Amino acid sequence: MNTNERIQDTLGSNAIVLYMKGSPQFPQCGFSGRAVQLLQSVGAKFESVDVLADPDIREGIKQFSNWPTIPQLYIKGEFVGGSDIMVELYENGELQKLVESTN
Amino acid sequence: MVTPQDIKQWIETGLDGSQVECDGDGHHFNAVIVSPDFSGKSIIQQHQMVYSALGDKMKAEIHALSMRTLTPEQAAQGD
Protein backbone atom coordinates (compact mmCIF):
# COMPACT_ATOMS: atom_id res chain seq x y z
CA MET A 1 0.00 0.00 0.00
CA ASN A 2 1.19 3.52 -0.69
CA THR A 3 0.88 6.28 1.90
CA ASN A 4 -2.49 7.52 0.66
CA GLU A 5 -3.92 4.00 0.72
CA ARG A 6 -2.61 3.46 4.24
CA ILE A 7 -4.32 6.67 5.39
CA GLN A 8 -7.59 5.66 3.73
CA ASP A 9 -7.32 2.21 5.23
CA THR A 10 -6.88 3.66 8.74
CA LEU A 11 -9.77 6.09 8.26
CA GLY A 12 -11.97 3.35 6.81
CA SER A 13 -11.51 1.00 9.74
CA ASN A 14 -11.73 3.52 12.63
CA ALA A 15 -14.63 5.92 13.24
CA ILE A 16 -12.45 8.46 15.07
CA VAL A 17 -8.76 8.92 14.24
CA LEU A 18 -6.33 11.46 15.65
CA TYR A 19 -3.05 12.00 13.82
CA MET A 20 -0.76 13.41 16.49
CA LYS A 21 2.80 13.80 17.72
CA GLY A 22 3.48 11.14 20.33
CA SER A 23 0.84 8.98 22.00
CA PRO A 24 -2.24 9.84 24.09
CA GLN A 25 -0.23 8.79 27.18
CA PHE A 26 2.85 10.77 26.11
CA PRO A 27 2.00 13.57 23.68
CA GLN A 28 5.13 15.18 22.24
CA CYS A 29 3.56 18.56 21.54
CA GLY A 30 1.17 20.83 23.44
CA PHE A 31 -1.32 21.00 20.59
CA SER A 32 -1.49 17.22 20.31
CA GLY A 33 -1.88 16.96 24.09
CA ARG A 34 -4.77 19.40 24.02
CA ALA A 35 -6.46 17.46 21.22
CA VAL A 36 -6.24 14.25 23.27
CA GLN A 37 -7.68 15.98 26.35
CA LEU A 38 -10.63 17.33 24.37
CA LEU A 39 -11.44 13.90 22.92
CA GLN A 40 -11.14 12.23 26.31
CA SER A 41 -13.32 14.86 27.97
CA VAL A 42 -16.19 14.04 25.61
CA GLY A 43 -15.69 10.31 26.15
CA ALA A 44 -14.47 9.57 22.64
CA LYS A 45 -12.94 6.20 21.86
CA PHE A 46 -10.37 6.97 19.23
CA GLU A 47 -7.48 5.52 17.29
CA SER A 48 -4.28 7.57 17.37
CA VAL A 49 -1.45 7.60 14.86
CA ASP A 50 1.97 8.90 15.94
CA VAL A 51 3.31 10.82 12.95
CA LEU A 52 6.74 11.15 14.56
CA ALA A 53 7.12 7.38 14.19
CA ASP A 54 6.39 7.50 10.45
CA PRO A 55 7.81 10.28 8.24
CA ASP A 56 5.77 9.14 5.21
CA ILE A 57 2.51 9.48 7.12
CA ARG A 58 3.66 12.76 8.68
CA GLU A 59 4.06 14.31 5.22
CA GLY A 60 1.28 12.31 3.57
CA ILE A 61 -1.46 13.33 5.98
CA LYS A 62 -0.69 17.02 5.36
CA GLN A 63 -1.20 16.53 1.64
CA PHE A 64 -4.25 14.31 2.17
CA SER A 65 -6.16 17.11 3.93
CA ASN A 66 -4.36 20.14 2.47
CA TRP A 67 -3.57 21.08 6.05
CA PRO A 68 0.01 21.91 7.09
CA THR A 69 -0.12 21.13 10.80
CA ILE A 70 -0.52 18.28 13.29
CA PRO A 71 -2.74 17.24 15.11
CA GLN A 72 -5.52 16.38 12.67
CA LEU A 73 -8.85 14.86 13.67
CA TYR A 74 -10.95 12.65 11.40
CA ILE A 75 -14.45 11.43 12.19
CA LYS A 76 -16.12 8.86 9.93
CA GLY A 77 -13.44 9.46 7.34
CA GLU A 78 -14.00 13.21 7.19
CA PHE A 79 -11.35 15.75 8.15
CA VAL A 80 -12.72 17.72 11.12
CA GLY A 81 -9.83 20.09 11.80
CA GLY A 82 -6.76 20.85 13.85
CA SER A 83 -6.54 21.72 17.52
CA ASP A 84 -7.90 25.28 17.24
CA ILE A 85 -11.00 24.01 15.45
CA MET A 86 -11.37 21.21 17.99
CA VAL A 87 -11.42 23.81 20.80
CA GLU A 88 -14.10 25.83 19.00
CA LEU A 89 -16.20 22.73 18.31
CA TYR A 90 -15.83 21.66 21.94
CA GLU A 91 -16.92 25.06 23.20
CA ASN A 92 -20.04 25.16 21.04
CA GLY A 93 -20.99 21.54 21.75
CA GLU A 94 -20.39 20.27 18.22
CA LEU A 95 -17.50 17.99 19.16
CA GLN A 96 -19.73 16.00 21.53
CA LYS A 97 -22.36 15.65 18.77
CA LEU A 98 -19.80 14.48 16.24
CA VAL A 99 -18.43 11.91 18.67
CA GLU A 100 -21.92 10.71 19.62
CA SER A 101 -22.78 10.30 15.95
CA THR A 102 -20.24 7.48 15.77
CA ASN A 103 -21.91 5.39 18.49
CA MET B 1 13.52 35.13 14.67
CA VAL B 2 9.95 35.51 13.51
CA THR B 3 8.01 38.27 15.26
CA PRO B 4 4.24 38.62 15.69
CA GLN B 5 4.56 41.69 13.44
CA ASP B 6 5.99 39.47 10.65
CA ILE B 7 3.06 37.08 10.87
CA LYS B 8 0.55 39.93 10.87
CA GLN B 9 2.19 41.36 7.76
CA TRP B 10 2.42 38.00 5.93
CA ILE B 11 -1.22 37.19 6.49
CA GLU B 12 -2.48 40.68 5.66
CA THR B 13 -0.41 40.66 2.46
CA GLY B 14 -1.58 37.20 1.41
CA LEU B 15 -5.22 37.67 2.33
CA ASP B 16 -6.64 40.84 0.79
CA GLY B 17 -8.65 43.03 3.11
CA SER B 18 -7.80 41.06 6.25
CA GLN B 19 -6.96 42.54 9.62
CA VAL B 20 -4.74 40.56 11.94
CA GLU B 21 -3.88 40.80 15.60
CA CYS B 22 -1.01 38.55 16.61
CA ASP B 23 1.08 37.95 19.69
CA GLY B 24 3.70 35.35 20.48
CA ASP B 25 7.17 34.59 21.79
CA GLY B 26 9.00 33.77 18.55
CA HIS B 27 8.01 30.09 18.68
CA HIS B 28 4.33 29.96 19.54
CA PHE B 29 1.95 32.53 18.13
CA ASN B 30 -1.71 33.43 18.59
CA ALA B 31 -3.50 35.26 15.82
CA VAL B 32 -7.00 36.60 15.36
CA ILE B 33 -7.80 37.14 11.70
CA VAL B 34 -10.79 39.15 10.48
CA SER B 35 -11.59 39.00 6.78
CA PRO B 36 -14.70 39.65 4.68
CA ASP B 37 -13.58 36.73 2.46
CA PHE B 38 -14.42 34.30 5.30
CA SER B 39 -18.16 34.85 4.75
CA GLY B 40 -19.92 31.67 3.68
CA LYS B 41 -16.80 29.52 4.20
CA SER B 42 -16.48 26.62 6.62
CA ILE B 43 -14.05 27.02 9.48
CA ILE B 44 -11.73 24.48 7.80
CA GLN B 45 -11.75 26.55 4.62
CA GLN B 46 -11.09 29.74 6.62
CA HIS B 47 -8.04 28.24 8.30
CA GLN B 48 -6.85 26.81 4.97
CA MET B 49 -7.02 30.33 3.49
CA VAL B 50 -4.76 31.62 6.26
CA TYR B 51 -2.34 28.71 5.87
CA SER B 52 -2.30 29.32 2.15
CA ALA B 53 -1.47 33.02 2.72
CA LEU B 54 1.50 31.92 4.83
CA GLY B 55 2.56 29.29 2.29
CA ASP B 56 5.92 27.65 2.86
CA LYS B 57 6.53 29.77 5.94
CA MET B 58 4.30 27.31 7.83
CA LYS B 59 6.81 24.57 7.05
CA ALA B 60 9.93 26.49 8.00
CA GLU B 61 9.79 29.67 10.04
CA ILE B 62 6.61 29.18 12.02
CA HIS B 63 6.73 26.44 14.61
CA ALA B 64 3.26 26.80 16.02
CA LEU B 65 0.36 29.09 15.27
CA SER B 66 -3.01 29.16 16.97
CA MET B 67 -5.65 31.06 15.12
CA ARG B 68 -9.20 32.26 15.37
CA THR B 69 -10.91 33.36 12.16
CA LEU B 70 -13.81 35.79 12.12
CA THR B 71 -15.90 37.61 9.55
CA PRO B 72 -16.25 41.38 10.17
CA GLU B 73 -19.82 40.70 11.38
CA GLN B 74 -18.65 38.12 13.92
CA ALA B 75 -15.85 40.43 15.08
CA ALA B 76 -18.35 43.24 15.64
CA GLN B 77 -20.57 40.97 17.75
CA GLY B 78 -17.65 39.84 19.88
CA ASP B 79 -16.80 43.35 21.08
Task: Give a structural overview.
The complex is a heterodimer of chains A (103) and B (79). Chain A has 103 residues and is of the alpha+beta class. Chain A has five helices and four strands; from the N terminus they run αβαβαββαα. Chain A has a four-stranded mixed beta sheet, with helices on both faces. In chain A, α2 packs parallel to α4. The model of chain A has no long low-confidence stretch (mean pLDDT 96). Chain B has 79 residues and is of the alpha+beta class. Chain B is 38% helix and 25% strand. In chain B, strands 1-2-3 form a three-stranded mixed beta sheet. At the A-B interface, β4 and α4 of A face α2 and β3 of B.
Offer a quick outline of the entry.
Chain A has 5 helices and 4 strands; from the N terminus they run αβαβαββαα. Chain A has helices spanning 3-13, 30-41, 55-65, 83-91, 94-100; strands spanning 16-20, 47-50, 72-75, 78-81.
What general form of chain B does the structure show?
globular
Largest chain-chain contact?
A-B, 15 and 13 residues
Helix content, binned percent of chain A: 40-55%
The ordered string of helix (H) and strand (E) elements of chain A is HEHEHEEHH
Percent helix among the residues of chain B? Answer: 25-40%
Average pLDDT metric of chain B = 93
Rounded to the nearest angstrom, the radius of gyration of chain B is 12 Å
Q: Name the strands of the widest sheet of chain A in spatial order.
A: 2-1-3-4
Span between termini of chain A: 29 Å
Largest sheet of chain B: 3 strands, mixed
Oligomeric grouping of the chains:
heterodimer
Radius of gyration of chain A: 13 Å
CATH architecture of chain A: 3-Layer(aba) Sandwich
Q: Which residues of chain A form runs of ≥5 with pLDDT under 50?
A: none
Order of helices and strands of chain B: HEEHEH
Q: Count up the domains of chain B.
A: 1
Figure out the total of helices of chain B. 3
Number of domains of chain A: 1
Could you tell me the CATH topology label of chain A. Answer: Glutaredoxin
Q: What is the global morphology of chain A?
A: globular
